[in-house]
């Protein structure tokens, strides 16, 4: 059975009046409302950053704040953090509220959910209904990466997991707060299901505090100014304007069928993987259909994701990259985009599939979406990027017994364009404004010493324009440490219009007394700690090149 | 002109050199204030300054004269990349720290993201075999042979300035200092900047980039200062020359020559200093200074007699630019000002700014060829600017403003009245967002603040911004259009120092804190005491400690109970209490389970200069007029509004809005419902609680 995910069930697919005069609202009132809503998400974002505990939330900003309409369409989000978090929040809220029952929600309620979005269980959403008097007019939803919710290992993520039940606990609409009062048994249960009680409590309270503050700001800034009907009309008008904007942008793309194919082969933890990916885009007037029927079946490795938080979120993000422009990234913007995905693929995995490293295929999906257009119209998009989350996780225990964990997200090269070299090194297109930890901070905090860090200027694919450069780092372990990493599919960033592929990313290990750099296979759950004196070399790939080198022939490819 | 024997009577000149105008505010020995304005004479800036000073009747040759100078030269040189051929000398193995950066894609929906390239190309980076460990202990020092070879390579590469950035130099600068000393001896004409001399904070990318920027502009800035002071001296100037520092004080010429990067916000900081001084004079504890000019609105917080500073400043913006790790007054900026253009965008939404019509062609009403409606046009249309009294300059073309507004209103399907009011409203919302970010979003109650308005367009919009944010009082200072130069008159010499101190507060001995403070204070005394020639009172020190719950990264800065460097014996208990109180106040929740740790210590040294006393009284002139103005009471509802020359108002005068005040350089709009009072010294305090939408119950 094939399911189609439309951006939002409430909007009819047809033409929407473009431009001005949506219902009773005018451009000015809409803009005032937009500023007002943005002032709320922006304030909450700052509040969370300043009070959270996990480095992932503070330095990496691994969270997202979203306002969602009463019919589950996101209409405003924070823009500083993880772009893939922003597009599926409506569905997460919809599921939790369906479980709870919308009629039982009261002002001052906050619910917890990490069920069924199709991301790893660490990604926990806290949601709160927002009211005009006793009428529910919107929700605030905040997603953050929790330290862990139990599972096989502290942190919850391990390549050893073969089922989602090994990755922690699932919550589905649990009421953490009722009418402004914390529900103690729920708080205690959440605290009981983690290895890292302090960090989880700190982060959760930051998230909860932000929900409560958000509800207060809604009352102060929105309820005080607009009635429930006006608010609903303003949200609808904004979504309609965004939809009209997106439809115009799609209409500017030539009708047709576009596609891209990739293949992943690798061995990991004793599992041999050989996957073929195919993605197809059909453009019909002002509609775009992205068909993921050609995705590989779900796998026993925890690199699956679900249809909503995985497939749909990645395709929506790729669509956002493709369209660009100064429009809000909201439910209306995604309305003209339809995603078709049959159940049981690696990006629409079943109930029990492990998803600890759910994001592994996300950069690939984004590259494939962009390349599908680029294969026919190479002047419209850049070549593929290094496309890897590539998290390198180093952990150990201090003399005090306290556990430490450092995550080094990979930074690599972006693809070249028809008129410019690619840039790099930066985080992949699934991640965004995540800052790497400074070497000096890492050396002061952890038993690590950096030997070198340099730009690999040759790593970008050759071409009329060169792909963006990756970087190389060498880290020495000063004490025994566990090291874990993502698998490495041997697929470099594809060039475009005759441009060459970028160099591959890799993590290699050199044990003391050895001259050999060896791949690191397995995970911390499976291999013992590496001894002091071990060197770890993390190399990030370059972006794909654009156009044939030493020629102007790239332009001939323009259809 | 100075009065012999009087310690109260000093002449002081504040001089703000901007891209277009050179503003001078001068107080003569009798305390009389004079304002001078000239076009900036690029390349020979002293000429513009001397002309502007001559306009003011203050004698440049007066021996006690202090000239405080603010300039946009540093920021402009960095933005436009007019700097020297700089070399980076760095730790072996780490040549590309300034390329790699933090790896974040700060424009998250842009797959074509790129940052502007580093100031120093890879061919000008030189590695040295040296290393400090993460705890500040020495791993190895560079050899003299290696340094001799390095000096030769730098010479051959034609390095005009050198930046030294070594890993972990924040914890121990010995290797940076040794290499700097060697290179200064070997290459005496080449300015050398060490990263640790500018910042003692970790984060190598930010610190190296800062050292690079400092070296990059050092030769340019040194030549500029030489021209300027030389030019003034030729004209008889023999007093003191100080340069405004981004952290909210001033530095000696010598410091400015070595650390030009500290002058990056040298221009706008004058207004902030003026705001602090006015808050002090009027006994206002908490104030937000809002400056709206032609293209940007800037807001800054002054709390309990001091401004907030931040330790990272972005050249070219956080999305594409590069960071400077220098203490900078926390000025938030948004791209909206009098010249901001209003248009209906491709989504059918009304936008105001960030594009500005600038001064050419300028707003439609300037009659210089502009056809797009701007914020200034909207104010003129609404009758909140009088066409014959626009900031004391030329008369404005109302018909041109009306035509421009009617055209865009038709595009948006609304009445011209609604559009004009809407343009003002959107501009105020944007300005309000910066004010809100500094008040409410930091957990501060806006009702505890007064909004100080400056800049040509600040006083026009301050009341509406205050109402939007929930602030009850607006303060309009004298000469709001020249506020930066005026503020420079009350600048003191000041220098900040930050040191890492990551430790559990319960295991930290008060003695260790004392030793750290003493060391920092002694360094700062060296910087500020310098020649010993500078007049002024004794150095005043204060410190604060950055605290957080163990595991957090973000900190709260907590000051000790008393000024000075005294560290209480119950340091841990005392600071923990203050931290928890502040944390709860700001974030609304408190974690009793976690340990509290210190992260950093900041020491501020200030050498107060003799205060100038300014007599603001001047001759009342001008006559009142009246306009029918649009105040948002509804479309087509125009209210009779007096048009008042500011100079006709005197201390104690009270009046109610609506009213429009005009003076040289600025216009003030006081909406219906507001009441205004002229304070001692001439500032006007406006109570906006009863303005529609204000905080008073209806």
Salient structural properties:
heterodimer, A: 559 residues, 7-stranded antiparallel sheet, 20 strands, 24% strand, disordered C terminus, B: 698 residues, alpha+beta, 9-stranded mixed sheet, 35 strands, 26% strand, disordered N terminus
How would you characterize this protein structure?
The complex is a heterodimer of chains A (559) and B (698). By secondary structure, chain A is an alpha+beta fold. Helices cover 25% and strands 24% of the residues of chain A. Chain A contains 9 helices and 20 strands. Chain A has helices at residues 27-51, 55-58, 89-100, 184-192, 197-223, 228-251, 307-323, 362-376, 439-445, and strands at 3-6, 63-69, 74-77, 110-113, 123-132, 135-145, 172-178, 181-182, 256-268, 271-284, 287-294, 337-341, 392-397, 403-408, 448-456, 470-477, 482-485, 506-510, 518-519, 535-539. Chain A has a 7-stranded antiparallel beta sheet with strand order 3-2-6-5-4-7-8. In chain A, strands 1-12-11-10-9 form a 5-stranded mixed beta sheet. In chain A, strands 15-16-20-18-19 form a 5-stranded antiparallel beta sheet, with helices on one face. Chain B has 698 residues and is α+β, with helices and mostly antiparallel strands. In chain B, 30% of the residues lie in helices and 26% in strands. Chain B is built from 17 helices and 35 strands. In chain B, the strands form 9 sheets. In chain B, strands 13, 14, 15, 20, 23, 24, 31, 34 and 35 form a 9-stranded mixed beta sheet that branches. Chain B has a 6-stranded mixed beta sheet with strand order 3-2-1-4-11-12. In chain B, strands 6-5-9-10 form a 4-stranded parallel beta sheet, with helices on both faces. In chain B, a hairpin with a 5-residue loop joins strand 21 (340-344) and strand 22 (350-356). In chain B, helix 1 crosses helix 7 (204-234) and helix 11 packs across helix 12. The N and C termini of chain B lie far apart (56 Å).
């Amino acid at each position: 059975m094939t399911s189609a995910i439309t951006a939002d069930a409430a909007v009819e697919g047809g033409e929407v009046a473009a431009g001005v005069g949506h219902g009773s609202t005018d451009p000015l009132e809409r803009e005032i409302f937009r500023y007002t809503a943005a002032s709320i998400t922006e304030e909450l974002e700052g509040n969370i950053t300043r009070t959270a505990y996990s480095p992932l939330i503070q330095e990496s900003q691994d969270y997202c704040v979203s306002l969602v309409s009463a019919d589950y369409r996101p209409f405003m989000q924070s823009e500083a953090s993880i772009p893939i978090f922003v597009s599926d929040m409506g569905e997460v809220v919809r599921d939790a509220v369906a479980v709870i029952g919308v009629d039982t929600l009261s002002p001052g309620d906050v619910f917890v959910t990490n069920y069924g979005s199709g991301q790893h269980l660490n990604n926990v959403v806290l949601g709160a209904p927002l009211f005009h008097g006793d009428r529910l007019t919107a929700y605030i939803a905040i997603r953050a990466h929790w330290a862990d919710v139990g599972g096989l290992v502290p942190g919850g993520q391990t390549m050893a997991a073969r089922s989602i039940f090994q990755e922690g606990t699932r919550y589905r609409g649990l009421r953490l707060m009722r009418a402004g009062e914390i529900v103690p048994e729920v708080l205690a249960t959440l605290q009981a299901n983690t290895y890292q009680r302090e960090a989880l409590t700190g982060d959760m309270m930051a998230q909860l505090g932000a929900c409560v503050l958000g509800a207060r700001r809604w009352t102060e800034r929105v309820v005080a100014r607009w009635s429930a009907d006006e608010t609903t009309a303003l949200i609808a008008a904004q979504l309609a304007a965004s939809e009209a904007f997106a439809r115009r942008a799609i209409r500017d793309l030539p009708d047709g069928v576009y596609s891209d194919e990739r293949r992943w082969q690798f061995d990991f933890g004793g599992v041999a993987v050989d996957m073929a990916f195919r993605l197809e885009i059909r453009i019909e007037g002002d509609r775009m259909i992205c068909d993921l029927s050609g995705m590989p079946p779900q796998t026993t490795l925890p690199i699956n994701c679900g249809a909503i938080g995985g497939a749909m979120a990645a395709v929506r993000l790729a669509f956002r990259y493709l369209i660009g422009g100064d429009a809000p990234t909201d439910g209306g913007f995604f309305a003209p985009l339809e995603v078709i995905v049959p159940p049981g693929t690696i990006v629409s995995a079943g109930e029990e599939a492990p998803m600890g490293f759910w994001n592994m295929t996300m950069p690939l999906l984004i590259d494939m979406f962009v390349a599908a257009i680029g294969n026919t119209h190479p002047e419209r998009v850049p070549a593929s990027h290094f496309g890897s989350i590539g998290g390198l996780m180093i952990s150990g225990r201090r003399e005090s017994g306290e556990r430490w964990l450092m995550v080094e997200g990979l930074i690599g090269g972006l693809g070249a364009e028809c008129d410019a070299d690619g840039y790099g090194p930066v985080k992949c297109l699934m991640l965004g404004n995540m800052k790497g930890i400074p070497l000096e901070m890492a050396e002061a905090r952890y038993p690590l010493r950096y030997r070198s860090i340099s730009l690999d200027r040759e790593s970008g694919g050759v071409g009329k324009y060169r792909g963006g450069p990756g970087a190389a780092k060498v880290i020495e372990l000063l004490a025994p440490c566990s090291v874990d990493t993502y698998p490495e599919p041997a697929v470099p960033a594809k060039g475009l219009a005759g441009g060459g592929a970028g160099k591959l990313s890799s993590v290699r290990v050199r044990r003391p007394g050895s001259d050999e750099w060896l791949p690191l296979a397995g995970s911390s759950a499976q291999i013992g700690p590496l001894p002091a004196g071990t060197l770890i070399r993390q190399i990030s790939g370059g972006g794909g090149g654009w156009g044939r080198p030493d020629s102007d022939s790239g332009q001939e490819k323009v259809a | 002109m100075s009065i012999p024997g009087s310690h109260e009577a000093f002449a002081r000149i504040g001089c703000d050199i901007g891209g277009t105008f050179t503003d001078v505010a001068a107080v003569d020995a009798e305390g009389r204030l004079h304002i001078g304005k000239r076009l900036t004479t690029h390349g020979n800036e002293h000429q513009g300054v001397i002309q502007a000073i001559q306009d003011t009747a203050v004698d440049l040759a007066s021996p006690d004269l202090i000239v405080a100078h603010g300039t946009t030269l540093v920021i402009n040189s960095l933005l436009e990349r007019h700097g020297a051929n700089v070399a980076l000398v760095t730790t072996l193995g780490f040549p590309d720290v300034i390329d790699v950066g933090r790896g974040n894609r700060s424009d998250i929906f842009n797959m074509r993201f790129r940052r502007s390239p580093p100031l120093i190309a890879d061919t000008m980076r030189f590695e040295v075999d040296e290393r400090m460990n993460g705890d500040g202990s020495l791993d190895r020092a560079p050899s003299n042979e290696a340094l001799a070879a390095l000096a030769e390579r730098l010479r051959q590469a034609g390095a005009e300035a050198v930046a030294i950035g070594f890993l972990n130099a924040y914890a121990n600068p010995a290797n940076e200092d040794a290499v700097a000393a060697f290179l200064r001896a070997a290459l005496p004409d080449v300015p050398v900047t060490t990263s640790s001399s500018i910042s003692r904070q970790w984060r190598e990318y930010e610190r190296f980039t800062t050292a690079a920027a400092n070296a990059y502009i050092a030769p340019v800035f040194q030549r500029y200062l030489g021209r300027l002071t030389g030019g003034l001296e030729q004209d008889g100037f023999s007093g003191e020359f100080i340069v405004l520092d981004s952290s909210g004080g001033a530095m000696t010429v010598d410091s400015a020559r070595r650390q030009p990067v500290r002058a990056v916000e040298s221009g706008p900081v004058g207004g902030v200093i003026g705001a602090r001084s006015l808050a002090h004079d009027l006994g206002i504890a908490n104030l937000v200074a809002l400056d709206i000019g032609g293209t940007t609105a800037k807001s800054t917080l002054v709390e309990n007699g001091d401004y907030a500073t931040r330790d990272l400043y972005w050249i070219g913006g956080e999305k594409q630019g590069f960071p400077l790790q220098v203490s900078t007054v926390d000025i938030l900026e948004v791209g909206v000002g009098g010249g901001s253009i209003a248009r209906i965008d491709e989504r059918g939404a009304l936008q105001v700014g960030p594009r500005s019509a600038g001064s050419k062609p300028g707003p439609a009403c300037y009659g210089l060829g502009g056809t797009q409606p701007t914020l200034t046009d909207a104010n003129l249309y609404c009758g909140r600017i009088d066409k014959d009294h626009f900031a004391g300059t030329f008369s404005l073309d109302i018909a041109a403003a009306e035509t421009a507004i009617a055209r865009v209103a038709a595009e948006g399907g609304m009445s011209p009245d609604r559009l004009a009011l809407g343009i003002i409203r959107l501009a105020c919302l944007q300005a309000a967002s910066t004010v809100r970010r500094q008040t409410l979003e930091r957990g501060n109650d806006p009702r505890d603040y007064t909004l100080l308005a400056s800049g040509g367009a600040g006083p026009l919009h301050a009341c509406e911004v205050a109402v939007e944010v929930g602030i009850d009082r607006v303060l309009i200072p004298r000469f709001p259009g020249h506020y930066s130069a005026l503020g420079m008159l009350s600048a003191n010499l000041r220098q900040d120092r930050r040191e890492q101190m990551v430790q559990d507060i319960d295991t930290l001995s008060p003695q260790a804190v004392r030793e750290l403070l003493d060391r920092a204070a002694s360094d700062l005394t060296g910087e500020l005491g310098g020649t010993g020639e500078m007049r002024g009172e004794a150095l005043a020190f204060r410190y604060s400690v950055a605290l957080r719950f163990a595991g957090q990264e973000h900190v709260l800065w907590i000051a000790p109970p008393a000024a000075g460097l005294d560290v209480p014996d119950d340091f841990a208990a005392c600071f923990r209490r203050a931290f928890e109180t502040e944390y709860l106040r700001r974030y609304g929740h408190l974690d009793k389970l976690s340990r509290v740790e210190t992260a950093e210590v900041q020491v501020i040294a200030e050498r107060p200069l003799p205060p100038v006393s300014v007599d603001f009284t001047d001759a009342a002139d001008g006559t009142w007029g009246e306009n029918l103005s649009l105040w948002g009471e509804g479309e087509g509802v125009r209210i009779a509004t007096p048009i008042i020359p500011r100079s006709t108002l005197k201390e104690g005068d009270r009046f109610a809005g609506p009213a429009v005040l005009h003076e040289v350089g600025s216009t003030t709009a006081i909406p219906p419902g507001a009441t205004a009072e002229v304070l001692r010294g001439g500032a006007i305090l406006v109570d906006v609680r009863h303005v529609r939408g204000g905080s008073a119950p209806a």
